[in-house]
Design a protein that fits this description.
By secondary structure, this protein is of the alpha+beta class. About 30% of the residues lie in helices and about 20% in strands. The protein contains five helices and seven strands. Strands 1, 2, 3, 4, 5, 6 and 7 form a seven-stranded mixed beta sheet that branches. α3 runs parallel beside α4. It starts with 5 loop residues before the first helix and ends with a helix. The chain binds tetrahydrodeoxyuridine.
Length: about 180
């Protein structure tokens, strides 16, 4: 092999660990709380998200997700996942909530978003994290109002908190990429 394809073999052997310049390390800080450690404002929004799960429409997955958003003017709105027989036509709780908030209160930033989810066994032990599409929509809302959104993910065992969606969406694509 070496005699037939000397360059090819050399290329693989010699450059394999060196085929890129460097690692780009993106760090995210996700704070992990016990529910009791949350401050009053956080706890109130988590409670609203938990209560919202009862209003989900989930005949297919039976996975009830609730979200609650605190707006800049103090308004709280909540939403749930809304499923559809044509599965992709359904929407997650986070997007239902943010699209409603932005449609109803287009001038209010979203300061905080709490999310809770229930499977058949009640609230999930470990927090359910927003899906990729919802992360992208959360990013758009942050960008739109130039305001980072604190995000609380509720689980029975612990609550995850981040101060911006950027901690959950490394190397994101956003509005500024279109301006490059
Ligand atoms: N779901 C949400 O509402 N939010 C998420 O972040 C993850 C998934 C919903 C979509 C669907 O109705 C069900 O959970 C199962 O995927």
């Amino acid at each position: 092999i070496i005699n037939l394809f000397p360059n090819f073999v050399t290329l693989i052997v010699e450059t394999n660990p060196l085929t890129y310049m460097r690692d780009l390390t993106i760090t995210a800080i996700i704070k992990v709380y016990q529910y009791d450690e949350l401050n009053e404002a956080d706890r109130a929004l988590v409670t609203t998200a938990k209560e919202a799960t009862a209003r989900s429409y989930v005949p297919y997955s039976h996975f009830s997700v609730g979200a609650a958003a605190l707006l800049g003017d103090g308004t709280v709105v909540s939403g749930t996942n809304q499923e559809n027989a044509a599965y992709p036509s359904g929407t997650c709780a986070e997007r239902t909530t943010l699209f409603y908030a932005n449609a109803r209160y287009p001038k209010s930033a979203v300061l905080m978003l709490a999310i809770a989810a229930q499977s058949g066994d009640g609230f999930t032990e470990i927090p359910a994290a927003p899906c990729g599409a919802c992360r992208q929509v959360i990013l758009e809302t942050e960008t739109r109002f130039d305001t980072p959104m604190r995000i609380l993910l509720y689980g029975r065992k612990c609550v995850y908190a981040v101060d911006s969606i950027k901690d959950l969406l490394p190397l994101y694509f956003g509005k500024s990429d279109l301006e490059k």
